[in-house]
Amino acid sequence: MPTPPQDTAVTTRDFPAFKRAGRRIVVVTAYDALFGRLVDEAGVDAVLVGDSLNQVIAGRETTLSATLEQMIYHGAMVRRGVRRALVVVDMPFLTYQVSREEAIRNCGRVMQETGAQAVKLEGGAAMADTVRAVVAAGIPVMGHVGLTPQSVHALGGYRVQGRDEEGAARLEADGRALEAAGVFAVVLELMPAALAERVSRALVVPTIGIGAGPGCDGQVLVLPDLLGLNDRFAPKFLKRYAELAGEVRRAVGAYADEVRRGAYPDAGHSF
Ligand code: KIV
């Protein structure tokens, strides 16, 4: 029997409690108030304002050029649409890697200017001291290891991580280092299902998988991908729950046809 959505506001402290209770955590991305409201009403536990918006909304090749101002703009929009789910905003490339002071200041700006309840930073053991400093400033942090899209060029492309034992051990150590630094959850992206299950068992905080199989404590998907709006993107891990790209083309095509034929607006749609 699936657990119904929690009807009170979800907080970061609920995440480890969800894991202890064996309740799987549902996360989805959103980039504006309209979809923030719809996914909140659908009962998700958390809404991630992902820097994937730089690809799926802004049409860029990678997430690297997303800026702090853009993430704040979209984060504030989403926050205005969401009443119950936890809102997490991605920190964009180069806003937290340069120094701990910059990381605290930039994460703090996101919290102050969007009203979100948490931020997400990419990177494992190498980011642990930064995560510790941000958490110590009172800012909840979600970690992100495995395929970390901001490092796509260092990783040699969007490829599955941790396929050999050395890589797998490194990813498990990354998860442990982030947990010790104080994250409330960790995204595991693009890794073998057995490794994601191993990391999930090793950690007390929940893991949120994407392309990491069924052994994680929760899942996240990019909303336009799961809705079938981004119909040119079809990786193996993605399941589409709707085919809205075709619906959009059909509806806009029907509108265009009626306008051209003079069938819309008709008397019933006029004052
Ligand atoms: O930017 C994003 O949407 C993400 C998810 C894919 C986890 O980081």
Uncertain runs are none
- The tally of helices reads 11
**Proportion in helices:** 40-55%
Task: Using the CA coordinates, give the radius of gyration.
Answer: 20 Å
Distance between the termini: 51 Å
Strand content: 5-15%
The strand line-up of the biggest sheet is 1-2-3-4-5-6-7-8
Bound molecules: 3-methyl-2-oxobutanoic acid
Q: Oligomeric status of the shown chains? A: single chain
What string gives the helices and strands in order?
Answer: HEHEHHEHEHEHHEHEEHH
Label the structural class.
alpha/beta
Largest sheet: 8 strands, parallel, barrel
Descriptive account of the structure:
By secondary structure, the chain is of the alpha/beta class. The protein has helices at about 15-20, 35-40, 55, 70-80, 100-115, 130-135, 150-155, 165-180, 195-200, 225, 245-260; strands at about 25-30, 45-50, 85-90, 120, 140-145, 185-190, 205-210, 220. It has an eight-stranded parallel β-barrel with strand order 1-2-3-4-5-6-7-8, surrounded by seven helices. The protein binds 3-methyl-2-oxobutanoic acid. 3-methyl-2-oxobutanoic acid binds near residues 48, 52, 90, 189 and 222.
Describe what is shown at a glance.
41% of the residues lie in helices and 13% in strands. It is α/β, with parallel strands linked by helices and 271 residues long.
